[in-house]
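Tutorial handout. Part one gives the primary structure; part two gives the three-dimensional structure as tokens.
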Amino acid sequence: MSDTAIATALTELVGVRTPLVQTGMGWVAGPRLVSAAANAGALGILGSATMTPEQLRSAVREVRSRTDAPFGVNLRADASDAGERVRIILDEGVKVASFALAPRPELIARLKDGGVVVIPSVGARRHAEKVAAWGADAVLVQGGEGGGHTGSVATTVLLPQVVEAVDIPVIAAGGFRDGRGLVAALAYGAAGVAMGTRFLLTSDSTVPQAVKARYLAAGVQDVIVTTRVDGLPHRMLRTDLVDALERSGRAAGLLRALRHASAFRRESGMSWAGLVRDGLAMKHGKELHWGQLLLAANTPMLLKAAMVDGRTDLGVMACGQVGGLIDDLPSCAELVDRIMAEAHATLGRLTTAV
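Part two.
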């Protein structure tokens, strides 16, 4: 492990050695990856949306058995059992709670009262201003380059907007993989960077090797945005399945959605009523018809088919645009050390140039 740490408002807030965050990817960010990222000096985040509450508690305890470093849990703020998951975080003494959507003010207050650092993810300046006013400790800003559900504004445009709008630490996400990107984000005023695809493509990730090989073989043009998986813009690798989804009509999509909704209900232990409640929460503020709400059930099971079962022909592979530039599988320790060494070398070159 190198000693090339960089102290920022993020490292001081959460107690990690480097201003790097491994994002809470469903089916990917499990105990092995999270503990490896934490031991390497980054902030590892468990992806809990695809876990039952019992699995989440077990995963938190497994991470703690593997590392003494701080780590976090990512939650869906609109999930019907969000309160139960918050209770687990409080019971187990988790350091950080991150959210894919803006959590309610009372949820933020409950976590902060328990000593948990709250870091929501946002894709617009107004959302950052809202959660900052509600008491969030930091905010993660994802630009359109980011994998999974994403927006249309590039990180280089969105990040400075948010940095200027809020007075809490800002973490940049979308398009980061190396030390040069970290320095660029710091220059914009960020307190660190968050990476999903880069940590997915490590030797510590449990994603099957055949799936990792598909990622490594992809170029930048092979990473696309589609709305045909769940009705919302979703950045992923182009595959035959994605092409087929793009061509399919609404009736075929509805049948597929029902099939996957049933499978996810069995996998998660949720009731049909719970799925409907979560669907209504997703619908709030979005122009989605009921067929698209059912399509949302595609996402967990189609991701699981690839990320867990290794079926690239039956699943989808969320991917940041930067995935087209990644060509190796280092360990988390090797990756973090390399990024920090590159960051210091870049800062050195800039200092010399000035």
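Part three, for discussion. The chain has 16 helices and eleven strands. The mean pLDDT is 90.
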